[in-house]
């Protein structure tokens, strides 16, 4: 779980920085942009070793980026307001001359944040960092994008309502065709909201969802591919490996695709594409056309995709088959914060401890209804109270 938390925090920072760069192009550059770029380059070329210091660095880094974006937006609003109030040309020119200058409070913020980023970068460099073995490399070296997904047990009770909502979306307004059905579902939400966990719950309990016993269950992890084009052949081979009694000895893409069609042609199946990032969806529609999973058949086919990108999900499954993840209640979030450590290593967070009491509302607020953020807070709080890595 520590590695998952680090990956979540790392992805959160890189995603937010990329979004900020798109939203605030020059000349309104992000404050201290060069420092953020240096840290991003460092994170991209190194893999993260779980440690208390590493988690704190990544958490502080995300906060610093958020503060800088808010600083930039407030400054732009102030400049625009001042400019609109200038009545004479001379006044407007004077306002324009002052746009490049900072007030003393602004300079203090930039100086303080710069020192923080230098400290974060130095600490990241000093923390134990191994050679480059990121998720994408691991996936490539194994030759497979297959992923069993998280193991679910009774501790994931809080997912049941959202899984039931997806089940209702699968069923629709009428009973499913007894001779078979086809359905595409898109699960959409920001990072850390539980998309993968909910998809896994539906995947594991799909017999209860639609009363069909699927002959093939295929889970494809695409989260490793965050940039660049999806390797269609690798996806096909990963799917083929999860079909009983079928290998992947074929060489050409068309041969692998044909073998997959034969493997699934007469079977009912549930297929999950978890963590779609690429906006180039040619591979998906090509696979959809060849497998003909939307054509009427005696076999049942349930296809689930998860992604942060609403537009991508809409293109893939249509506007009527989307499920947007809902934030979890404060009660659930607090339960995750207070109970997560006990489930992992039997260290229970003492809810009446002065530090916990003081930080409770703040941790719930800053979790924003996200389960992964809540478990991250739980781990940080455990380290603060008990020490250790």
Q: Hey, roughly how much beta strand do the residues contain? A: 5-15%
Distance between the termini: 12 Å
The structure class reads: alpha/beta
- Count of separate DSSP helical elements: 16
What is the 3D shape? globular
Write a compact overview of the structure shown.
The chain is an alpha/beta fold and 389 residues long.
What does this structure look like?
The chain contains 16 helices and 7 strands. The protein has helices at residues 2-23, 33-45, 52-85, 89-98, 104-126, 135-142, 160-171, 195-204, 206-210, 232-241, 253-264, 282-291, 310-317, 330-345, 354-367, 371-386; strands at 47-48, 129-130, 182-188, 216-221, 269-276, 301-307, 322-324. The strands form 2 sheets. Strands 4-5-6-3-7 form a 5-stranded parallel β-sheet, with helices on both faces. Helix 12 links the parallel strand 5 (269-276) and strand 6 (301-307). Helix 14 packs across helix 15.
Question: How is this fold's topology laid out?
Answer:
Layout: H1 2-23, H2 33-45, E1 47-48, H3 52-85, H4 89-98, H5 104-126, E2 129-130, H6 135-142, H7 160-171, E3 182-188, H8 195-204, H9 206-210, E4 216-221, H10 232-241, H11 253-264, E5 269-276, H12 282-291, E6 301-307, H13 310-317, E7 322-324, H14 330-345, H15 354-367, H16 371-386
Parallel strand pairs: 3-6, 3-7, 4-5, 5-6
Antiparallel strand pairs: 1-2
Helix pairs in contact: 1-3, 2-5, 3-5, 7-8, 10-11, 14-15, 14-16, 15-16
